[in-house]
Design goal:
Helix content is about 65%, strand content about 5%. It has 24 helices and 5 strands. The chain has a 5-stranded parallel β-sheet with strand order 2-1-3-4-5, with helices on both faces. Helix 21 runs antiparallel to helix 22. The protein starts with 8 loop residues before the first strand and ends with a helix.
Length: about 450
């Protein structure tokens, strides 16, 4: 069983046109079309890129909401180009009058439906006539026809319940956990014999850090239907948060028995292996996720981390670069590549990557920490101090900032400040109490840094 319907009609849009896209989705769903929209149909706990690709594969028609924002959107272009390569029917929906030359030439053709400047109901009727009707017309199928709660049904109403939990999905993706909780709870009330909203509400509880309550919802869902891969995947994530990787691993394996091509479960299974220190198995599981879907940057970045854990930094760099080929501004991959370069002794390349991370994300404290270590190793103790102070300002609970600033102060002839900072580093991370355990946190000029640590500990 899948947690979503079998959609026929994918809606591709830019965020600036989200209100129109959501209105359209509601009207199509009520008319018996089975549309797909990321905000409604990607469940909590799923990987967005993988779900979007899966939906594009499943749908026979792709509606492209065409306006200035979508013409400029790389994501919208990627979606309809992928759909075009698969031979899907492309239907541009003109919601803003643009000069013809601004609209990509592949979208020019007989399938246009014009909404800009015309009666919405008339344009909608023309669109519906061109789409497959695969469900009975039912106003209750619309996730958000208005803001009033549905009356309690005499019997379980799975159609209305699905509409309400999709509204919960939209709230979840908007970061509105209270709204998501209300919608999922309402969906459970409408159809108490259905598991979907319980699984989704479990992820709200997970996001709130209420892991035991999340497990309770997942367990109730399992009692209703134990054949849902997403249930086991999400419960496994909750077990990981509770630092119970063995139980998590069992759930990810169950998800993969039910759905062998479940890329997200392969990815999460790898995370469980990482938590267990079984890095080679983690690498193999990340590789399986990539075999299922090779267009997700996160998969390559994470496999790079598993290679790094195995001290195979050249392979890690290759994976970070694969991730960056898919997303050129993927900050985590750039930062991880910087760390790998540092481990390989490619210090100039590492410094360039740390600088780039900071340019993209000025609050990325780990990039400042990496740059501080490089500056320290180069003897630029003033800059090392400045970067370490920035780390402390951004993350006052991070031990590395204090340790790095202590080392810089020590070399600058400020023993009082150095020992005060180092004492704080030890309070936050006991590994700094001895040079041999502190070595795990020092990469670039480890021997020199450890000598300084030894001096500080005397």
């Amino acid at each position: 069983m899948e947690l979503r319907d079998s959609p026929t009609t994918f809606i591709s849009y830019a965020r600036a046109d989200e209100l129109f896209a959501r209105r359209l989705y509601n009207d199509l769903a009520a008319a018996g079309v089975e549309p797909w929209l990321d905000r409604y149909d990607i469940p909590p706990g799923a990987i967005w890129d993988a779900e979007i690709q899966r939906a594009l594969n499943a749908c026979c028609a792709v509606l492209i909401v065409v306006g200035a924002a979508s013409v400029a959107s790389q994501n919208v272009h990627a979606e309809w180009n992928y759909a075009d390569a698969l031979g899907k029917k492309l239907i541009p929906l003109i919601v803003e009058r643009l000069e013809p030359e601004r609209i990509p030439y592949r979208l020019h053709g007989p399938n246009w439906v014009v909404f800009a400047g015309v009666d919405y109901a008339t344009a909608l009727a023309a669109l519906i006539a061109a789409l497959p009707i695969t469900a009975p017309a039912n106003p209750a199928a619309a996730p958000d026809p208005n803001n009033s709660p549905l009356a309690a049904p005499v019997e379980s109403d799975p159609v209305a319940a699905a509409a309400v939990w999709k509204r919960g999905n939209a709230a979840f993706h908007d970061g509105d956990m209270s709204g998501a909780m209300r919608a999922y709870t309402e969906s459970i009330r409408i159809a108490p014999d259905r598991p979907e909203a319980l699984i989704h509400r479990g992820m709200v509880l997970y996001e709130q850090g209420r892991y035991d309550a999340a497990l309770a919802d997942f367990n109730l869902a399992q009692e209703l239907d134990g054949s849902i891969p997403l249930l086991y995947n999400n419960r496994g994530v909750a077990y990981l948060a509770l630092k119970q990787p063995a139980q998590a691993l069992a759930d990810f394996e169950e998800a993969l028995i039910l759905k062998p091509d479940y890329a997200n479960a392969c990815y999460n299974r790898a995370a469980a292996y990482m938590a267990l220190g079984r890095y080679r198995l983690a690498t193999d599981s990340y590789t399986r996720a990539i075999e299922i879907n090779d267009r997700v940057p996160l998969f390559y970045n994470s496999r790079g981390l598993s290679y790094a854990a195995l001290d195979e930094h050249d392979l890690a760099v290759e994976d970070y670069e694969r991730a960056l080929a898919l997303d050129g501004d993927y900050v985590q991959a750039i930062g991880n590549r910087a760390n790998a370069y540092a481990n390989l002794g490619r210090i100039d390349a590492a410094l360039a990557d740390y600088d780039r991370v900071i340019a993209l994300d000025p609050e990325h404290y780990l990039a400042y920490a990496g740059r501080s270590e490089i500056n320290w190793c180069r003897g630029d103790y003033s800059r090392a101090t400045l970067d370490a102070s920035t780390v402390i300002g951004l993350r006052p609970d991070f031990h590395g900032g204090y340790a790095l600033r202590a080392l810089a102060y020590w070399r600058r002839g400020k023993p009082g400040e150095a020992r005060q900072d180092y004492k704080r580093a030890v309070e936050l991370e006991p590994a700094w109490r001895a040079a041999d355990t502190a070595s795990v946190y020092l990469t670039i000029c480890r021997d020199d840094a450890l000598r300084a640590v030894g001096e500080l500990l005397e």
